[in-house]
# Entry
Amino acid sequence: MKRLFQRIKQWLQRLSFRTGVIILALCVPCYILSFAQMALPISTEAKGVLWFILFGLAKTFQYGGLTILGVEGVRRLKAYFGKKKEEQ
# Structure
């Protein structure tokens, strides 16, 4: 099982920086939807199932995106957003 996770991690790390940013950005709508669905007029059980699925997707996108980006990609993102703050 550990070997399978290593292979998946290696495959994800071979993807591009742009792909990592897109996957990481997909976690935001999933987080929003996971909590916004609580306002729907549906049963508590359905809300729980929806929250479980949407929150799980958000975490999957988050960790998958971070795995694709890696340490160097996270540094690039921090540098990019740091420059934007300095310009304002």
